[in-house]
Structure of Acetoin utilization deacetylase AcuC-like enzyme:
Amino acid sequence: MRAFFHPDQRLHTPQQFMRAGRLAAPQDVPARVDPLLAALAGRGIAAERPADRGLTPALAVHTPDFLDFLAGAWGRWAALPNAGPEVLPNLSPYWNGTPGTVRPPCRSASVVAQAGHYLGDLAVPLGEASWTAILASTWTAAGAAEAVLGGDRAAYALCRPSGHHARADRASGFCYLNNAAIAAQALRGRFAKVAVLDIDAHHGDGTQEVFYGRGDVLTVSLHADPAVYYPFYTGYADERGVGAGEGANLNLPLAPGTGDDGFHAAIDRGLAAVRDFGAEALVVSLGFDSHAADPIGLLKVSTDGFAGAGARIAAAGLPTVVVQEGGYEVGVIGDCLGRFLDGFGGV
Ligand SMILES: [Zn+2]
Protein backbone atom coordinates (compact mmCIF):
# COMPACT_ATOMS: atom_id res chain seq x y z
CA MET A 1 0.00 0.00 0.00
CA ARG A 2 1.36 3.42 -0.90
CA ALA A 3 1.26 6.04 1.82
CA PHE A 4 1.46 9.82 1.74
CA PHE A 5 2.69 12.47 4.17
CA HIS A 6 3.97 16.02 3.73
CA PRO A 7 6.66 17.21 6.19
CA ASP A 8 4.96 20.61 6.53
CA GLN A 9 2.17 18.85 8.42
CA ARG A 10 4.46 18.93 11.47
CA LEU A 11 4.39 22.74 11.53
CA HIS A 12 1.02 22.94 13.27
CA THR A 13 1.95 23.14 16.96
CA PRO A 14 -1.20 23.93 18.95
CA GLN A 15 -0.53 25.36 22.40
CA GLN A 16 -3.87 24.94 24.17
CA PHE A 17 -7.46 23.83 24.02
CA MET A 18 -10.37 24.31 26.37
CA ARG A 19 -11.41 21.32 28.44
CA ALA A 20 -13.91 21.47 31.30
CA GLY A 21 -13.35 25.17 31.79
CA ARG A 22 -9.56 25.11 31.74
CA LEU A 23 -7.05 25.67 29.02
CA ALA A 24 -5.43 22.26 28.70
CA ALA A 25 -2.33 20.86 27.04
CA PRO A 26 -2.83 20.11 23.34
CA GLN A 27 -3.55 16.53 22.27
CA ASP A 28 -2.78 16.82 18.56
CA VAL A 29 0.97 17.12 19.03
CA PRO A 30 3.39 16.85 16.09
CA ALA A 31 4.96 13.80 17.78
CA ARG A 32 1.87 11.79 16.80
CA VAL A 33 3.36 11.56 13.33
CA ASP A 34 6.49 9.63 14.31
CA PRO A 35 5.00 6.31 15.48
CA LEU A 36 2.69 6.29 12.46
CA LEU A 37 5.62 6.76 10.08
CA ALA A 38 7.56 4.10 12.00
CA ALA A 39 4.67 1.64 11.63
CA LEU A 40 4.74 2.22 7.88
CA ALA A 41 8.51 1.86 7.72
CA GLY A 42 8.31 -1.35 9.71
CA ARG A 43 6.20 -2.77 6.91
CA GLY A 44 8.47 -1.55 4.15
CA ILE A 45 6.35 1.47 3.26
CA ALA A 46 8.11 4.79 2.75
CA ALA A 47 5.60 7.63 2.93
CA GLU A 48 5.63 9.70 -0.26
CA ARG A 49 5.51 13.49 -0.28
CA PRO A 50 2.32 14.55 -2.06
CA ALA A 51 2.34 17.17 -4.80
CA ASP A 52 1.55 20.79 -3.93
CA ARG A 53 -1.99 21.22 -5.17
CA GLY A 54 -2.68 24.68 -3.78
CA LEU A 55 -6.28 25.26 -2.80
CA THR A 56 -7.77 22.91 -5.38
CA PRO A 57 -8.54 19.94 -3.08
CA ALA A 58 -9.90 22.20 -0.33
CA LEU A 59 -12.13 24.17 -2.71
CA ALA A 60 -13.84 20.95 -3.77
CA VAL A 61 -15.40 20.76 -0.29
CA HIS A 62 -14.99 24.12 1.49
CA THR A 63 -16.25 27.65 0.94
CA PRO A 64 -13.85 30.32 -0.34
CA ASP A 65 -14.63 32.68 2.55
CA PHE A 66 -13.70 29.99 5.09
CA LEU A 67 -10.41 29.28 3.33
CA ASP A 68 -9.64 33.02 3.19
CA PHE A 69 -10.18 33.19 6.93
CA LEU A 70 -7.95 30.21 7.72
CA ALA A 71 -5.20 31.47 5.42
CA GLY A 72 -5.07 34.98 6.84
CA ALA A 73 -6.46 34.88 10.36
CA TRP A 74 -3.23 34.50 12.30
CA GLY A 75 -1.59 37.57 10.80
CA ARG A 76 -4.69 39.69 11.40
CA TRP A 77 -5.04 38.28 14.92
CA ALA A 78 -1.42 38.99 15.79
CA ALA A 79 -2.04 42.65 14.95
CA LEU A 80 -4.78 42.95 17.61
CA PRO A 81 -3.89 44.78 20.80
CA ASN A 82 -2.97 42.22 23.50
CA ALA A 83 -3.41 39.30 21.11
CA GLY A 84 -2.68 35.84 22.48
CA PRO A 85 -0.38 33.41 20.69
CA GLU A 86 -3.15 31.69 18.73
CA VAL A 87 -6.48 32.60 17.16
CA LEU A 88 -9.19 31.35 19.52
CA PRO A 89 -12.80 32.54 19.45
CA ASN A 90 -14.53 34.29 22.31
CA LEU A 91 -17.90 34.20 20.54
CA SER A 92 -20.29 31.34 19.83
CA PRO A 93 -22.62 32.42 17.03
CA TYR A 94 -25.91 30.70 16.38
CA TRP A 95 -27.26 30.06 12.91
CA ASN A 96 -30.75 28.70 12.38
CA GLY A 97 -30.21 27.40 8.87
CA THR A 98 -31.30 24.30 7.05
CA PRO A 99 -29.15 21.22 7.73
CA GLY A 100 -27.05 20.33 4.71
CA THR A 101 -26.75 23.91 3.54
CA VAL A 102 -23.89 26.33 4.00
CA ARG A 103 -24.12 29.59 5.92
CA PRO A 104 -23.57 32.91 4.20
CA PRO A 105 -20.10 34.37 4.79
CA CYS A 106 -19.54 36.21 8.08
CA ARG A 107 -21.15 39.67 7.88
CA SER A 108 -18.31 41.32 9.76
CA ALA A 109 -14.76 41.85 8.53
CA SER A 110 -13.45 41.75 12.12
CA VAL A 111 -11.08 38.86 12.79
CA VAL A 112 -12.64 38.55 16.26
CA ALA A 113 -16.10 38.08 14.71
CA GLN A 114 -14.77 35.73 12.07
CA ALA A 115 -12.94 33.60 14.65
CA GLY A 116 -16.32 32.92 16.27
CA HIS A 117 -17.97 32.34 12.89
CA TYR A 118 -15.42 29.93 11.44
CA LEU A 119 -13.95 28.23 14.52
CA GLY A 120 -16.67 26.10 16.04
CA ASP A 121 -15.09 25.44 19.41
CA LEU A 122 -12.00 26.03 21.54
CA ALA A 123 -10.11 23.01 20.21
CA VAL A 124 -8.98 24.57 16.94
CA PRO A 125 -6.34 27.18 17.71
CA LEU A 126 -4.62 28.74 14.74
CA GLY A 127 -0.94 29.49 15.17
CA GLU A 128 1.54 31.13 12.85
CA ALA A 129 2.27 28.00 10.79
CA SER A 130 -1.04 26.19 11.19
CA TRP A 131 -2.36 27.09 7.73
CA THR A 132 0.72 25.66 6.04
CA ALA A 133 0.18 22.33 7.84
CA ILE A 134 -3.58 22.32 7.28
CA LEU A 135 -3.16 22.81 3.54
CA ALA A 136 -0.44 20.16 3.30
CA SER A 137 -2.75 17.70 5.05
CA THR A 138 -5.29 18.18 2.23
CA TRP A 139 -2.57 17.45 -0.34
CA THR A 140 -1.81 14.21 1.49
CA ALA A 141 -5.46 13.15 1.21
CA ALA A 142 -5.53 14.18 -2.45
CA GLY A 143 -2.34 12.23 -3.16
CA ALA A 144 -3.79 9.04 -1.69
CA ALA A 145 -7.03 9.53 -3.62
CA GLU A 146 -5.09 10.04 -6.82
CA ALA A 147 -3.24 6.73 -6.27
CA VAL A 148 -6.57 4.91 -5.97
CA LEU A 149 -8.03 6.78 -8.94
CA GLY A 150 -4.99 5.57 -10.86
CA GLY A 151 -5.77 1.95 -10.10
CA ASP A 152 -4.21 1.20 -6.71
CA ARG A 153 -6.34 -1.09 -4.56
CA ALA A 154 -5.74 1.08 -1.49
CA ALA A 155 -3.68 4.02 -0.26
CA TYR A 156 -3.05 5.57 3.16
CA ALA A 157 -3.07 9.30 3.87
CA LEU A 158 -1.22 10.24 7.07
CA CYS A 159 -3.29 13.36 7.57
CA ARG A 160 -2.48 15.75 10.41
CA PRO A 161 -4.23 17.86 11.42
CA SER A 162 -7.26 15.60 11.13
CA GLY A 163 -10.38 16.54 9.24
CA HIS A 164 -13.61 14.73 10.03
CA HIS A 165 -15.06 17.40 12.34
CA ALA A 166 -14.54 20.15 9.75
CA ARG A 167 -17.64 21.35 7.95
CA ALA A 168 -17.72 23.16 4.63
CA ASP A 169 -17.29 26.47 6.45
CA ARG A 170 -16.25 25.65 10.00
CA ALA A 171 -13.33 24.12 11.89
CA SER A 172 -13.79 22.25 15.17
CA GLY A 173 -12.45 19.39 17.28
CA PHE A 174 -8.75 19.61 16.24
CA CYS A 175 -9.96 19.57 12.59
CA TYR A 176 -9.72 22.41 10.07
CA LEU A 177 -10.26 21.04 6.56
CA ASN A 178 -12.04 17.76 5.91
CA ASN A 179 -9.44 15.44 4.40
CA ALA A 180 -11.82 12.45 4.18
CA ALA A 181 -14.46 14.51 2.39
CA ILE A 182 -11.78 15.80 0.02
CA ALA A 183 -10.75 12.21 -0.75
CA ALA A 184 -14.38 11.13 -1.23
CA GLN A 185 -15.06 14.05 -3.55
CA ALA A 186 -11.96 13.20 -5.58
CA LEU A 187 -13.06 9.56 -5.90
CA ARG A 188 -16.38 10.78 -7.29
CA GLY A 189 -14.41 11.83 -10.36
CA ARG A 190 -14.27 8.19 -11.38
CA PHE A 191 -16.74 6.31 -9.18
CA ALA A 192 -20.47 7.07 -9.34
CA LYS A 193 -21.13 6.07 -5.72
CA VAL A 194 -18.66 6.51 -2.88
CA ALA A 195 -18.98 5.67 0.80
CA VAL A 196 -17.18 7.05 3.84
CA LEU A 197 -16.80 4.69 6.80
CA ASP A 198 -15.67 6.63 9.88
CA ILE A 199 -14.32 4.44 12.69
CA ASP A 200 -12.77 7.22 14.78
CA ALA A 201 -14.09 7.30 18.36
CA HIS A 202 -15.91 10.57 17.65
CA HIS A 203 -18.83 11.16 15.33
CA GLY A 204 -17.67 12.39 11.94
CA ASP A 205 -19.97 15.39 12.12
CA GLY A 206 -18.20 17.48 9.51
CA THR A 207 -18.21 14.70 6.94
CA GLN A 208 -21.86 14.02 7.67
CA GLU A 209 -22.77 17.65 7.11
CA VAL A 210 -20.76 18.00 3.89
CA PHE A 211 -22.69 15.15 2.27
CA TYR A 212 -25.96 15.32 4.22
CA GLY A 213 -28.06 16.45 1.26
CA ARG A 214 -26.40 14.22 -1.33
CA GLY A 215 -27.34 10.77 -2.58
CA ASP A 216 -24.04 9.97 -4.28
CA VAL A 217 -21.93 9.71 -1.11
CA LEU A 218 -22.98 7.49 1.78
CA THR A 219 -21.61 8.54 5.16
CA VAL A 220 -21.39 5.95 7.94
CA SER A 221 -19.94 6.76 11.36
CA LEU A 222 -19.54 4.52 14.38
CA HIS A 223 -18.52 6.32 17.53
CA ALA A 224 -19.00 6.66 21.26
CA ASP A 225 -22.53 7.77 22.09
CA PRO A 226 -22.71 11.54 21.52
CA ALA A 227 -25.11 11.88 24.44
CA VAL A 228 -21.98 11.61 26.63
CA TYR A 229 -19.10 12.39 24.26
CA TYR A 230 -17.88 15.02 21.83
CA PRO A 231 -19.34 16.30 19.48
CA PHE A 232 -22.55 15.91 21.56
CA TYR A 233 -24.90 17.71 19.16
CA THR A 234 -24.81 15.21 16.29
CA GLY A 235 -24.11 11.54 15.76
CA TYR A 236 -27.50 10.15 16.75
CA ALA A 237 -29.10 7.22 14.98
CA ASP A 238 -32.07 9.22 13.69
CA GLU A 239 -29.89 11.46 11.49
CA ARG A 240 -30.42 9.83 8.10
CA GLY A 241 -29.83 12.66 5.59
CA VAL A 242 -32.13 15.15 3.87
CA GLY A 243 -33.50 15.61 0.35
CA ALA A 244 -31.50 13.63 -2.18
CA GLY A 245 -29.38 12.43 0.75
CA GLU A 246 -32.31 10.87 2.63
CA GLY A 247 -31.15 7.44 3.75
CA ALA A 248 -27.51 8.08 2.78
CA ASN A 249 -26.28 8.74 6.32
CA LEU A 250 -25.92 6.12 9.04
CA ASN A 251 -24.81 6.72 12.62
CA LEU A 252 -23.98 3.82 14.90
CA PRO A 253 -23.49 5.13 18.46
CA LEU A 254 -21.60 2.81 20.80
CA ALA A 255 -21.99 2.59 24.57
CA PRO A 256 -19.02 3.81 26.62
CA GLY A 257 -16.76 0.87 27.36
CA THR A 258 -17.50 -0.90 24.09
CA GLY A 259 -14.61 -3.25 23.22
CA ASP A 260 -13.50 -5.24 20.21
CA ASP A 261 -16.68 -7.29 19.77
CA GLY A 262 -19.01 -4.31 19.68
CA PHE A 263 -16.53 -2.34 17.56
CA HIS A 264 -16.31 -5.12 14.98
CA ALA A 265 -20.07 -5.68 14.96
CA ALA A 266 -20.60 -2.00 14.18
CA ILE A 267 -18.03 -2.13 11.38
CA ASP A 268 -19.84 -5.16 9.95
CA ARG A 269 -23.10 -3.25 10.09
CA GLY A 270 -21.55 -0.23 8.47
CA LEU A 271 -20.00 -2.30 5.69
CA ALA A 272 -23.35 -3.98 5.05
CA ALA A 273 -24.81 -0.50 4.50
CA VAL A 274 -21.91 0.33 2.18
CA ARG A 275 -22.66 -2.79 0.15
CA ASP A 276 -26.42 -2.14 0.06
CA PHE A 277 -25.75 1.41 -1.08
CA GLY A 278 -23.80 0.05 -4.06
CA ALA A 279 -20.61 1.98 -3.30
CA GLU A 280 -17.87 1.55 -5.88
CA ALA A 281 -15.13 3.06 -3.73
CA LEU A 282 -14.54 3.64 -0.03
CA VAL A 283 -12.91 6.23 2.21
CA VAL A 284 -12.06 5.09 5.73
CA SER A 285 -11.71 7.73 8.44
CA LEU A 286 -9.30 5.87 10.67
CA GLY A 287 -8.93 7.07 14.26
CA PHE A 288 -7.21 5.32 17.12
CA ASP A 289 -8.89 7.25 19.93
CA SER A 290 -11.23 4.27 20.41
CA HIS A 291 -8.22 2.46 21.91
CA ALA A 292 -8.59 1.68 25.62
CA ALA A 293 -5.45 3.71 26.41
CA ASP A 294 -6.51 6.92 24.68
CA PRO A 295 -6.32 9.90 27.06
CA ILE A 296 -9.62 11.38 25.83
CA GLY A 297 -11.36 8.14 24.88
CA LEU A 298 -14.39 6.29 26.24
CA LEU A 299 -14.18 3.06 24.21
CA LYS A 300 -12.06 0.00 25.03
CA VAL A 301 -10.81 -1.28 21.70
CA SER A 302 -7.54 -3.24 21.90
CA THR A 303 -4.51 -2.83 19.65
CA ASP A 304 -5.34 -6.14 17.95
CA GLY A 305 -8.90 -4.92 17.50
CA PHE A 306 -7.60 -2.76 14.65
CA ALA A 307 -6.36 -5.85 12.81
CA GLY A 308 -9.94 -7.09 12.83
CA ALA A 309 -11.07 -3.71 11.54
CA GLY A 310 -8.55 -3.81 8.71
CA ALA A 311 -9.49 -7.35 7.71
CA ARG A 312 -13.18 -6.53 7.60
CA ILE A 313 -12.65 -3.40 5.54
CA ALA A 314 -10.33 -5.19 3.10
CA ALA A 315 -12.93 -7.95 2.67
CA ALA A 316 -15.36 -5.37 1.32
CA GLY A 317 -13.21 -5.52 -1.81
CA LEU A 318 -13.50 -1.85 -2.73
CA PRO A 319 -10.86 0.62 -3.89
CA THR A 320 -10.07 2.27 -0.57
CA VAL A 321 -8.47 5.50 0.64
CA VAL A 322 -7.56 5.29 4.32
CA VAL A 323 -7.39 8.73 5.93
CA GLN A 324 -5.83 9.23 9.36
CA GLU A 325 -8.04 10.97 11.90
CA GLY A 326 -7.58 11.00 15.69
CA GLY A 327 -5.73 8.91 18.26
CA TYR A 328 -3.75 10.69 20.97
CA GLU A 329 -1.85 8.07 22.94
CA VAL A 330 1.48 8.37 21.15
CA GLY A 331 2.66 5.15 22.78
CA VAL A 332 0.04 2.96 21.07
CA ILE A 333 -1.09 4.61 17.83
CA GLY A 334 1.84 3.24 15.82
CA ASP A 335 0.97 -0.31 16.82
CA CYS A 336 -2.69 0.37 16.06
CA LEU A 337 -1.83 1.46 12.53
CA GLY A 338 0.53 -1.46 12.10
CA ARG A 339 -2.12 -3.95 13.16
CA PHE A 340 -4.71 -2.27 10.93
CA LEU A 341 -2.36 -2.66 7.95
CA ASP A 342 -1.59 -6.27 8.91
CA GLY A 343 -5.30 -7.02 8.97
CA PHE A 344 -5.89 -5.20 5.71
CA GLY A 345 -3.24 -7.33 4.05
CA GLY A 346 -0.34 -6.52 1.79
CA VAL A 347 -1.75 -4.59 -1.13
ZN1 LIG B 1 -11.61 11.32 17.36
